[in-house]
């Protein structure tokens, strides 16, 4: 028990974002009206769930030295695919599986071009973002897909072990992602690949396979979020993921995941998502305009990027002087 407590304390001390998130949470309890109500906390966690899930996938991509701007369109197209399937009478399970398969396919497409063919990650994922957002709008005529089964809508608003289902899925994703990234051989190979691909190849790491797998994971988790969002909204919206990408990248970077690869954690990404969700929720309850909320979050993300760049340059100088 003492070892577990020590590990938790050391983890908090080594990651300032955890202290910042928990500190903000405590402050909001005392200074933001209606924040600590059961309804608001459940709403906060529900809104955070789909953001948190895709942030795990992006954390893996960033640790491997990549980037994924197609997450938003993956959420939109998978939600639409699942909704269209169910609206046409296909079984809920098959509809969900088809959405996850599409998400995996988008990730595979990104991975083949980026890891296999050496295409620039920024350009490739920007292309797939535009491509699949366009497809989602085209197949729905830019309107939301309605007529979803009541059982599917109830899934997004049900509970597992007294925890809202989307939040439960998010927590399972966090735990599984943390274990894989920190306790497995795959995780160690991923860190080595992100830090120095040439060195990774010299020690026998299959960089192409490792990087490709991170994009597939990101696509699958994008599909999970797309399905959850469709279930929570009760419709399949072709624009449901349009504005999420900067928040996903922001949450990951705020949580200590470097844009330059080889550094990061799922725990940090989780608390980055929590921090941004707390800011949105708190400012909304205080009656602050959405434009100002975006400015505040943008400033925080900018600060995190500056810290990342400064830290990377400092590390490079230390290595050169060693």
Can you walk me through this structure?
The chain has 322 residues and is mainly α. It has helices at residues 2-14, 16-31, 38-63, 71-87, 92-116, 121-140, 150-155, 165-183, 185-195, 197-202, 207-233, 245-254, 266-285, 290-321; strands spanning 159-160, 163-164. It has a two-stranded antiparallel sheet. Strand 1 and strand 2 form a beta hairpin. The chain starts with a helix and ends with a helix.
Q: Order of strands in the sheet with the most strands?
A: 1-2
Please report which band the strand proportion falls in: under 5%, 5-15%, 15-25%, 25-35%, 35-45% or over 45%: under 5%
Structural class: mainly alpha
Q: Count of DSSP E strands?
A: 2
Major sheet attributes: 2 strands, antiparallel
The residue fraction in helices comes out at over 70%
Q: Please state the second-level CATH architecture of the domain at 47-241.
A: Orthogonal Bundle
CATH topology of the domain at 47-241: ABC transporter involved in vitamin B12 uptake, BtuC
Put the structure in a nutshell.
With 322 residues, the protein is an all-alpha fold. It is 77% helix and 1% strand.
């Amino acid at each position: 028990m003492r070892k577990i407590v020590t590990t938790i304390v050391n983890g908090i001390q080594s990651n300032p974002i955890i202290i910042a998130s928990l500190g903000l949470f405590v402050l909001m309890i005392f200074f933001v009206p209606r924040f600590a109500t059961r309804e608001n906390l459940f709403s906060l966690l529900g809104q955070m769930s789909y953001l948190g899930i895709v942030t795990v996938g992006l954390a893996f991509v960033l640790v491997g030295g990549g980037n994924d701007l197609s997450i938003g369109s993956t959420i939109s197209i998978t939600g639409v695919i699942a909704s269209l399937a169910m609206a046409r009478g296909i079984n809920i399970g098959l509809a969900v599986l088809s959405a996850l398969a599409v998400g995996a396919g988008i990730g595979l497409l990104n991975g083949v071009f980026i890891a296999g063919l050496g295409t620039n990650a920024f350009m490739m994922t920007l292309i797939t973002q535009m491509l699949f957002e366009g497809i989602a709008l085209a197949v729905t005529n830019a309107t939301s897909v309605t007529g979803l089964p009541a059982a599917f809508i109830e899934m997004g608003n049900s509970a597992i072990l007294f925890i809202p289902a989307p939040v439960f899925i998010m927590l399972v994703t966090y735990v599984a992602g943390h274990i894989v990234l920190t306790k497995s051989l795959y995780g160690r190979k991923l860190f080595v690949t992100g830090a120095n691909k040439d060195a990774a190849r010299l020690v026998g790491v299959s960089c192409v396979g490792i990087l490709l797998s991170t994009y597939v994971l990101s696509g699958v988790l994008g599909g999970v979020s797309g399905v959850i969002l469709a279930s929570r909204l009760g419709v399949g919206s072709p624009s449901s993921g349009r504005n999420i990408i900067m928040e996903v990248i922001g949450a990951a970077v705020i949580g200590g995941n470097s844009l330059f690869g080889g550094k990061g954690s799922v725990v940090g990404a989780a608390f980055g998502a929590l921090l941004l969700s707390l800011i949105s929720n708190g400012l909304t309850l205080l009656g602050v305009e959405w434009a100002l909320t975006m400015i505040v979050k943008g400033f925080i993300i900018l600060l995190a990027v500056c810290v990342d760049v400064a830290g990377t340059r400092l590390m490079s100088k230390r290595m050169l002087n060693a």
